[in-house]
Amino acid sequence: MQLSTWKGPNGGNVQIYLDGTSQGIFSEHNASDIYNQQLFSASNLATSSHTIKVVAQDTNWSMVDYLTYSSGGGTLNGAEASPASTGNVTLQAATLQ
Fold it and tell me: What is the C-alpha to C-alpha distance for residues 44 and 1, in angstroms, rounded to an integer?
């Protein structure tokens, strides 16, 4: 599973959770705008449902370009899945208060 994002001058920090466990804090800051940058990846996940949550850690911009995962030979890019894909992808969005 790979989570790809935009990075740019106004990019902030995000904390990523996989199945409820923090995977760390990651920066989306870069001197110039760049897209499709791998921010996080995980491999050897059990064949079951998984939840990834991205939580903004500051008031700067945070964006997700797409999530890619493979299961049973299929690949899910964004919201389009091939017939061989199985499982569920849950993306949770929240507003920093």
Answer: 9
Give CA–CA dist 88/19, Å, rounded.
Answer: 12
Neighbours of 78 (CB within 10 A): 11
Distance in angstroms (rounded) separating the CA atoms of residues 97 and 78: 27
CA distance linking residue 58 with residue 14, whole number of Å: 8
CB count, 10 Å around CB of 49?
11
Give the global pTM: 0.73
HEC string of 7-61 equals: EECCECEEEEEECCEEEEEEECECCCCEEEEEEEECCCCCCCCEEEEEEECCCCE
Per-residue model confidence as pLDDT tens digits over 50-71 = 888 888 898 898 888 888 877 6
What is the sign of the dihedral through the CA atoms of 79, 85, 89 and 26?
negative
